[in-house]
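Researcher: Next entry in the queue.
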Amino acid sequence: MPKSKPESKPQSPESKTESRQRGRPPVSGDALAERQAGVLSAAGQLLAEKTSSDITVEQLIQVAGTSRPTFYRWFPGGIEQVVEMLIARANQDLIGRIVSVVAETSGLEQRIEAGVRAYFEWARDMGPVTYGIYREGFDEASPAWRYRQQTIATVVGIVRQQAEALGFAHLSELSIETLVSWIESAGATLFRHYPVQAEQIEEQRWLTTEMFLAMIDVVRRDSRGGVGS
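Model: Structure for this entry, 229 residues:
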């Protein structure tokens, strides 16, 4: 006669709680940001060697020194989430730096010089991330393109506000966008040749500042009837 299977006992509330506690608790807030930082740094390193679309999870976890399950625990959106966060944070940092130096300086020329310097220092500090942004910043399929557009629009708005506050209301939107594009083009030209030397950064920063100030001088003379007269 076959033996009957022992009846399974229903789990008590205490047993269920104990079972849940065996798994890893969710990570959030500062603790999650701290754990994500190493993976984001690794992704930045890889951008010096390949485009964001060519980075694989295997490559990323190898450089970061973590495991696949842990990676997906911190980044459930996968590689796309990593790249999005990396580029978004880089652009947020740039805007923060520009806003900060504008608030700390007075006079249009001084703010121009400080703003251009802040931009080149940001690009230098970002290292391979800057290289990746400018390598992919003209590809509409890359998040670098989207964030680049947002940053340009934000900086144009900052320059317009400052120009109006300092009595340059006649500086047109097109002129402001041209000025901002000059700065970005100077950065793209330089940092797409990553890695670059400190003296190259300083030379490009000086040239960009002089170009910006020269156009402001042209606008001043134009407003006084000095151009074409």
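Model: The chain has ten helices and no strands.
Researcher: Noted, moving on.
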